[in-house]
Write a structure and sequence with these properties.
single chain, Aldehyde Dehydrogenase, Chain A, domain 1, Aldehyde Dehydrogenase, Chain A, domain 2, binds nicotinamide-adenine-dinucleotide
Length: about 500
């Protein structure tokens, strides 16, 4: 087992930890019905470090046969009741144990995400804090929720009970591999469901390590399983299964739409979606500290290489300050250049893979072609002579007719729009298929409330970008999705109401 007592401090420390993890052998098998196994047909997929091009592991690539086995095991576990009917306080104890194990191994888990998908290790450690906090939050809340007694007359007793759904398939993306996993599995497990996790084919390693920690924590057989593999294969099989009760998905809007169709073609399972975004960040001229706002506006898009669902990818600036403000954003972007993901000082890391790298560069090409002004970045770069890196890229003079102004790029590309007055700001902000997040920078409380109410968005950040914790729900409106992660509201996604009406003799 990795020695997590020694906290890596430097790039050399992280490199040494990475070398020792690889030498010990990374878990590359599926976790199915309490055993680590190869895919039924022996198929594998290759996972690669995008910062170096090196192969990390050949990982089991599950398909429909593995999905069927996992669904049967999950159903057996659910009907058996060892978890689903366990007293909430006892489920809490197991989940808190899992949180402790994750905390003890947080450096290893963070490193696996960094190696797999290229994010800076400092940022991956931040994700671990989020993932562990999420697990603790739901574990702690589950034995504090009460049912309801309906306001009946003396001749009846009406009870409203909350019950787990059954078998939940969680399908997650690669941009925050373990944190998105925690947002899904923590409330689903806390509510008493059996959970099958399908990590992204681009970042399966931390989920497989999590499986062994879940086993060590004492989750009963079949209650938590991990099936690595491709979306069109094992993901589709789970989505079409007649015995999965809920699909909890985080990923692109296109795949989210497919999942709703699969549910309609199969058993009408509940589909709970967290999808893409093209989030507007509105800066009004009355802001006091424009240097600070510019720093936040740059971080809102360049954090995690722009591979963030709530990236502040559309910067809407009041025209009276636009020129000066864009200069400040460019200065901030200059300080956010990509570096070695294993260097704790790096702000940006590598782009997840060739496909995403090429897609981002294609959007940049289209931005230039469509007439936006490229102010910085725009060309692929390398770190230490290798890897898939793209520097902070800023376009000014973007309009809502341009692809870079409308479509989710999912990379470090900022599109700047100018506006005059609140009405135009709100019109531009809402002129999107998406409605995930919006930012609003102003000192005028009346304006803040007026504009906040008019924004069609799952969350609004006022004088910050993405400062949130577990206590508030996270999710989108319009084509950004239909569910909520985090807070006690996410427990509602993973449970059903049962009404019980008892006739009494008064
Ligand atoms: P993606 O939609 O390509 O893949 C997400 C997951 O779905 C992966 O595990 C993939 O294997 C699986 N999948 C793909 N096709 C499938 C199919 N036909 N059937 C079943 N499963 C299938 O998304 P991605 O590229 O991994 O992630 C980026 C997207 O995720 C962006 O659009 C981003 O905005 C979104 N995202 C949203 C949130 C949020 O909370 N709203 C958070 C993170 C990422």
């Amino acid at each position: 087992m990795t020695d997590n007592r020694r906290i890596p401090q430097t790039r050399d420390d992280w490199q040494a930890l990475a070398a020792s993890l690889v030498e010990q052998g990374l878990e590359n098998r599926a976790y199915l019905d309490d055993a680590f196994v190869d895919a039924a047909d022996g198929a594998t997929l290759t996972t690669t470090n995008p910062a170096t091009g090196e192969t990390l592991a050949e990982v089991a690539s599950c398909d429909a046969a593995d999905a069927d086995r996992a669904v049967s095991a999950a159903r057996r576990a659910f009907e058996g009741g060892a978890w689903s009917r366990l007293a909430p306080g006892k489920r809490k104890a197991v989940l808190l144990r899992l949180a402790e194990l994750m905390a003890a191994h947080r450096h290893e888990l963070a490193l696996l995400d960094t190696l797999d998908m290229g994010k800076p290790v400092t940022s991956a450690l931040g994700d671990m804090a989020g993932a562990i906090g999420c697990l603790r939050h739901h574990a702690e809340s589950i034995d504090k929720l009460y049912g309801e007694v309906a306001p009946t007359g003396d001749d009846a007793l009406g009870l409203v009970l909350r019950e787990p759904l059954g078998v939940v398939a969680s399908i997650v993306p690669w941009n925050f591999p373990l944190m998105m996993t925690a947002w899904k599995i923590a409330p689903a497990l806390a509510a008493g469901n059996s959970v099958i996790l399908k990590p992204s084919e681009k970042s399966p390693l931390s989920a497989l390590r999590l499986a062994s920690l879940a086993r060590e924590a004492g989750l009963p057989r079949g209650v938590f399983q991990v099936l690595p593999g491709f979306g069109h294969s094992v993901g589709k099989a789970l989505a079409l299964s007649m015995d999965v009760d809920c699909l909890a998905f985080t990923g692109s809007t296109g795949v989210g739409k497919q999942l709703m169709q699969y549910a309609g073609q199969s058993n009408l399972k509940k589909v709970f979606l967290e999808c893409g975004g093209k989030s507007p960040n509105l800066v009004f001229a009355d802001c006091k500290d424009l240097d600070k706002v510019a720093e936040h506006a740059a971080a809102a898009i360049f954090h995690n290489q722009g591979e963030v669902c709530i990236a502040g990818s559309r910067l809407l600036v009041e025209n009276s300050i636009r020129e000066a403000f864009v200069e400040k954003v460019l200065a901030a972007a200059e300080r956010m250049q990509p570096g070695d993901p294993l260097d704790p000082a790096s702000f940006m890391g590598a782009i997840v893979d060739d496909t995403q790298h090429a897609r981002i560069l294609e959007y940049i090409r289209r931005g230039v072609e469509e007439g936006a002004t490229l102010r910085t970045g725009g060309e692929a770069t390398a770190v230490g002579g290798k890897g898939l890196f793209i520097p902070p890229t800023v376009f000014d003079g973007v309009t809502d007719a341009m692809a870079i102004g409308r479509e989710e790029i999912f990379g470090p590309v900022l599109s700047v729009f100018g506006f005059d007055g609140e009405d135009e700001a709100v019109r531009l902000a809402n002129d999107s298929d998406y409605g995930l997040a919006a930012g609003l920078w102003s000192q005028d409380i009346d304006r803040i409330m007026r504009v906040t109410r008019r924004l069609r968005s799952g969350q609004v950040f006022v004088n910050n970008w993405a400062d949130m914790d577990q206590t508030v729900p996270f999710g989108g409106v319009k084509q950004s999705g239909n569910g909520r992660d985090k807070s006690h509201h996410s427990l509602e996604e993973y449970s059903d109401l049962k009404s019980v009406w008892m006739t009494l003799t008064p």
